Amino acid sequence: MTSVAPELVRHSPVASTTHTGSRPSHISKSPVRRRIGCIDWMRGLSVLFMVECHSLYFLHPSHDGDAARRYLQQLNGLLAPQFILTAGFSIALVCGRIGRLAAEDRGARFRKTLRRIGQVMLVSVWLKLIYWNFTVYPNRLLWVNVLDCIAMSLLVILPIVLYCPFRRLILLAGAVAFFTVVPLVQSPKAFGAFTGFINNSLYPDTWPLIPWAGYAFIGALLGLRMARVGKLSSLWLSFLALLGLGLLVVWLARPIGWLYGDNPAWLVVNAAERIWRIGAIGLLLLTLEMLASSRPVLFRNPIIWTIELFSRQSLYAFALHLVFLFGMGRFRPFNRFHQSTDWRLYVVLTLAVVACTGICCVLIENARPWLTAMRHRPA
Prior knowledge:
It is built from 14 helices and no strands.
């Protein structure tokens, strides 16, 4: 699998937006398939900045209070929501575009997407097996990381977008519920075996479905609208709505505090701050996509190439950068630098991890067609 969510046509958003290859006759009447550049870039940037975020472990503890670190951590708070939102967007966009096809075509898409979600879960379990000793900490297998959150969210969203008649209404109700219920469960108390799924106040570095799955539901709403309208103008309105709604909830922080209490209300307002910032980033990336369509030469550079590579290979990039950073078995290329560097060496090492991850992603991307041809070659 090349990304967490199903892929569309394989080409860069700064290249041609039409697909000239042959396609089956029953698909020829469907809307023209094209990548949505701003969503691709949002996914790629999320993965790229995850490398930056996790590379902060290189810094000596004396830099914990630095202004630069505090600023980076503010940006890093948007990475997981964006990553989850783009997964929900992509699955809803693809499924929304085939929603009017025959039942067998929808069934084939359902099975194909289930296999890809299974790949996400397998990578998640593999990472847990690398970094946790389950003979000592068996409960860690139930700790929900960001890949678990994405996979479980998509398992809920997939049948909704493919088969439910009131799918937009259901997704909207689900998104609202995830963010309004969070203050009721995010308290320092355990819920048995389900604690890691709905509450991370006891378990650090977890991504429980409440509220994080709400970002996938928001992304699915945006993807369904894009599939129905088929114009980037719909994304402008969607991101403007996120921007406006998020700012409105932040502005209403005081009455929300009266309703929930100060500390629980912070959870709602904090989610709203993430939402309006994602809307603002989406509008910025949409503007860049429009500029890329008129002046593509400006966007043919190593930075954009890396962002698009990490978008196409987001699952592998996510897993591989962790392996390079924290090691696997005796393979520990960067462990000697953990918590020992200054900012200059941090930048160098972060770029090195990006380069190593990118090289592996290129090898995987180029090897896949060859492996597919080998698998289908007649005996």
